[in-house]
Each structure stands twice: as C-alpha cells, then as structure tokens.
TrEMBL record:
GO molecular function, one term: oxidoreductase activity, acting on the aldehyde or oxo group of donors, NAD or NADP as acceptor
Active site: 258
Protein name: Aldehyde dehydrogenase
UniProt-listed PROSITE patterns: ALDEHYDE_DEHYDR_GLU
Cross-referenced Gene3D superfamilies: Aldehyde Dehydrogenase, Chain A, domain 1, Aldehyde Dehydrogenase, Chain A, domain 2
PANTHER family named in the record: ALDEHYDE DEHYDROGENASE-RELATED
Short name of any one Pfam family annotated for the protein: Aldedh
Species of origin: Cupriavidus oxalaticus
Length: 493
C-alpha cells in the first residue's frame, strides 16, 4: 500500500545558517531513487557560503552560552531535541524516505527513534567527561581539562541520512562544539528539518548549521576552512583519504573517519538453528539493499553446513519484495542512483568473468516504478582475489567461500584492506573468542549481526575502514581536546 504520494512531500531545499533556512537558486537536481524522478533542486554552497556558515558557527560559540552552559543544561536541550524528533515522526519519515533508499516503514519504526535515542545517549555524556586529576608530587596539582574543539565540520553519506546526523552532530554538541554539516547532496533534506527542530529545542542559532552541495566544492571548502578545528566523515575510503590529506595540509586538524568495509560472516558447522541464521545472514546483506558500511558481504562457511545454509539464504532472498520507499510492502530498497547500480553490475560481471558461479540474482529487476532495484545476488566458487570478494560493492551481493578447519576459516575471514566488522556464528564459546581475537576488525558480533540500540558500544574500523569511533564514550572524547594544567602550591622557599 502506498503510504504517501511523493509528489506531495515538500522539502526544505536550502542551507540552514544562523537558525534559519537560506534558499538560493537551485543548482543540483535531487532525484528520488525509487522512481528516478527529480524531486527538487538544491543550492550549492560555494566557498563564500561555507565561510558564512562557519563564521556564523564561530560567532555562536562565542556569543551564545552553549559551551559555557552547565553541561546538564546542554543535556536537557539535547533531550528536548530528541523528544521533538520523535514527536515529528509523521513528518520526518516521509521526508527521509522520499529522496533516499529508506523505506518509509523502516524510517518511521527504526531511523527516527534511533536518531532520537542516539541524541539522548550523547546528552547523557554531556557531564560525564570532564577530564582527569593527574598523579603528581603532593605539593602540585595536575589536571587534564576536557575542552571542546570549537567548530567541527561533519560530512555525512546518503545511506542513513537522519541517523548519521545524530551520531556526528549529537556527539559534537554534547561536548560543547558548534557543528557545520554537509549532508550528501543525494539525501540533503532531513538534516535541515533536524536543524529546525534543534532551534525549537533551544540549541542556540548557529551552533548547528547545514550547508548543501557536492563534495568537490562544498565538502572541500568546509574541510579546508581555517576555523574548522576538526573533521568527522562517513563515506568511502577514497574520499576519507582525501579529506585526511586536506586536514593535514590545512591544519593539521584531527579526523574521525568511518569508511568502507567488506565484512565477513564466519559460520562454523556447530552454529545452531540454520533457519534463523539464514535470516540473519540474508538480512545483513539485503538491509537497505546492502548499502550499509557494515553489510555482511562475505559468507565464510564450514563445508559441512555450507549447502544447507546457502539454500536457505537463497530462499530468503527470493521472498524479498523490491519497491518504492513510499510503499509499506517494500522489503528491498532501491539503489541510490543509476551510477551506483551500474557500479554494482560491473563488479558482479567482473566476478563472473573470473570464474564465479551465480547462485541467484546478478542483475536489476525488470519493470518497477523507474528506479534501479538490484536482485539479491549470491555468488559462490570465488577465489580470495575475486573482485566480488575484494571490493566493497554496496549492494545486495553476497559471496560464499567455504573452509575446512578453524585456521582456514579465520584466514579467509581476514581482508587485505578492510577491517570494519565481522560476525561469528558458533555454539563453542572458546572458538568464538579465538575468532574474536583473530579477526582484525573494529567490531566483532558473536551469534548476531548488526548494531543494536546499545549506543554505548562504539563503531568504527581498522585498517582502511577508518580512524576513530562513532557512538560510545569514544565518540564524545573524539570531540574533546585536553588541556594540561599544573598547579604548584609548595611553600615558598
Ligand atoms: P563518497 O565517500 O564519495 O561521498 C560521501 C560524502 O563525501 C558525500 O557527501 C560526498 O559529496 C563527500 N565528498 C566527496 N568528495 C569529497 C571531498 N574531496 N571533500 C569533502 N567531501 C567530499 O561516497 P559515494 O556517495 O560517492 O559512494 C561511493 C562508495 O562509497 C559506495 O559505493 C560505498 O562503497 C562507499 N560508501 C560508504 C559509506 C559508509 O557508510 N561507510 C556510505 C556511502 C558510501 P559528493 O557526493 O558530492 O561526492
């Protein structure tokens, strides 16, 4: 059933600076992934507009009392913001769904409450990280005082637009910083609505500004800006590296980077309940059509259970229903853009040409409302150097590799470049913990896959999957710098 008519969804197509929507001539067409139609035109912030947004944030830091407020007062405002977000679920869910890949049902039941609860988590940290008292000689007092950086620049991707804002902006504001955010130009609108609600909640104007535009112009100007003291980014490894390089030259300034992944699901033959497991594994690669940084894209399965598990996964794939994000029967999301769909096709094709066997899928669904819908795809018979095993696909494509013993399984679970996440499925706790130690990744889930609402568990990668953490205490700490103080109160000699 169609939940909303996409033509009737108004969008705030502008920047948000100084507590108000700033519109300008449209420069960037924003398409709806579901039907590939242009929904609105977005202005593009050039260096001058980015400068205005950053200067405004800098001014707000000095003239508003945000950084000097009692931390619990900042926390109260952030909690109020979270309440307003939850109360606006009927507006936010379609706004999120219309130009993104997030089905409205998932956006309403998942993304909106997840966004609000994430902000509450960060609010609770506002008065928890003050610093340390150092062990100095007794007639001295040494302190390490936590302070905000000032203006933090944030660049977020298109796959979970709302949730990403709460992770990046929530952590930065709770620590007392101002934030200038550039959302992906593919999914730019819900961030503006969040900024409006932040003002309503009592966040001072300028403390959270949004600039719209592409990476090369707007993102780059934000990264280089001399008043931006720290950058936080989620997206591809390649873009993360160029942001880090720019931060080195135009700072140096610290970066938090949450980047690509090629995460393994390691299944031993004693893993209980293959039906349930098939559901977990299929869900981990088809949720948001695989457009998830921690998608479980490589199944590494012990030979004894491989065929039985693969059959069950293929059956799960077949039950998925592609459809527009405004249809509540949709269980398989569209691909964000035609370009991204052809990138997925290209990798699958190269994988086939080098000997892989397609067990199901492999191409786009025919028909539909006009967007690109990729068939859930399972590829077996792949060598470790196969393109589908090596490259982040960011689509519903699962590769299968089999192994004999634990050592071989662990060897296959590692990846030459990425180390974002992994799943381990076994009934043997010793084996699970050996695998946890053996897998070089920022997160290891045991007998489950995917993040939970336990925001206290940080997320972030090893190797080319990133630097630093989102969520957890670590995310708040990453938005703080530490001033060392040494007080000498010895008797004058
Ligand atoms: P990118 O990493 O290229 O882009 C993410 C964000 O960074 C966008 O807002 C982008 O703007 C911006 N950006 C790009 N170049 C720069 C720059 N030089 N300076 C500052 N900002 C910049 O992701 P894509 O959307 O192009 O997707 C490509 C691949 O990235 C996917 O196939 C997937 O593998 C991976 N990806 C990973 C994500 C994750 O969650 N870790 C999320 C999204 C993508 P613009 O769009 O204008 O380039």
């Amino acid at each position: 059933m169609q939940v909303f008519d996409p033509q009737t969804i108004p969008v705030p197509a502008g920047h948000f600076i100084g507590g108000r929507l700033v519109t300008d001539a449209g420069r960037i067409p924003v398409r709806r992934p579901s039907d590939n139609r242009v929904h609105a035109e977005l202005p593009l912030a050039d260096a001058a507009t980015v400068d205005a947004a950053v200067q405004d944030a800098w001014r707000a830091l000095r003239t508003s009392d945000w950084a000097r407020r009692a931390p619990r007062e900042r926390a109260r405002v952030l909690r109020r913001w979270a309440d307003l977000i939850e109360a606006d679920v009927r507006g936010l869910a379609p706004l999120e769904a219309v130009c993104s890949t997030r089905p409205v049902r998932d956006a309403g039941a998942g993304d909106v409450p997840f966004t609000a609860e994430g902000l509450r988590f960060f609010a609770e940290y506002a008065d928890k990280l003050g610093g340390d008292v150092a062990a100095t000689r007794p007639d001295h007092l040494g302190m390490v005082v936590a302070e905000p950086y000032g203006v933090v620049g944030a660049i977020t991707p298109w796959n979970f637009p709302l949730v990403m804002v709460s992770w990046k902006v929530g952590a930065a504001l709770a620590a007392g910083n101002a934030v200038v955010l550039k959302p992906s130009e593919l999914t730019p609108f819900s961030a503006v609505r969040l900024a409006e609600l932040a003002i309503e909640a009592g966040v001072p104007p300028g403390m959270f500004n949004v600039v719209q535009g592409d990476g090369q112009t707007t993102g780059d100007a934000l990264t280089r800006h001399p008043l931006v003291a720290k950058m936080t980014f989620t997206g591809s490894t390649r873009t993360g590296a160029s942001i880090m390089a720019a931060c080195a030259v135009h700072g140096p300034k610290p970066v938090t980077l949450e980047l690509g992944g090629k995460s393994a699901q390691l299944v031993f033959d004693d893993a209980p309940d293959l039906d349930r497991l098939a559901g977990i594994i299929a869900g981990a690669i088809t949720g948001n059509a695989g457009q998830v940084c921690v998608a479980g894209s490589r199944l590494i399965v012990q030979r004894g259970v491989a065929e039985a598990l693969v059959e069950r996964i293929v059956a799960r794939f077949a039950a998925l229903r592609p459809g527009a994000t405004w249809d509540d029967a949709t269980t398989l999301a569209p691909i964000i853009s035609a370009g991204q769909a052809s990138r997925i096709l290209d990798i699958v094709e190269r994988s086939r040409q080098t000997g892989a066997e397609l067990r199901c899928g492999g191409g786009l669904f025919d028909g539909g409302p006009g967007g690109a819908y990729f068939q859930p795809t399972l590829i077996s018979g792949v060598a470790a150097d196969n393109a589908a095993v090596q490259e982040e696909i960011f689509g519903p494509v699962l590769t299968v590799q089999t192994f004999g013993d634990e050592e071989e399984g662990l060897e296959l679970a590692g990846h030459a470049n990425y180390g974002l996440a992994a799943g381990v499925h076994t009934a043997d706790i010793g084996r699970a913990l050996r695998a946890m130690r053996g897998i070089s990744a920022g997160t290891v889930w045991i007998n489950r896959y995917g993040r939970s609402a336990d925001f206290v568990i940080p997320t972030g990668g090893y190797h080319q999957s990133g630097i630093g953490k989102d969520l957890g205490r670590q995310a708040v700490e990453a938005n703080l710098r530490f001033k060392s103080v040494l007080i000498d109160f010895s008797e004058p000699r």
